[in-house]
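Quick review question:
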């Protein structure tokens, strides 16, 4: 009987740690998406500037 209680306590501890880590990752996800979109826009604008500065007649 004692081993069942220890297993239940261990399982609930592992589950709570997993949920804590998952919540932390999900809380950071919007900031990561915003940063990724900012990087994408920066590279897209850099590509447009390179295309506009090249002389097509050369």
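Suggested answer, residue by residue:
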């Amino acid at each position: 009987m004692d081993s069942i209680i220890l297993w239940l306590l261990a399982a609930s501890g592992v589950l709570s740690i997993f949920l804590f880590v998952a919540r932390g990752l999900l809380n950071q996800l919007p900031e990561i998406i915003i940063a990724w979109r900012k990087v994408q826009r920066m590279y897209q604008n850099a590509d447009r500037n390179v295309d506009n500065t090249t002389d097509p007649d050369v």
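Why it works: The two ends are 85 Å apart (CA to CA). Helices lie at 2-53.
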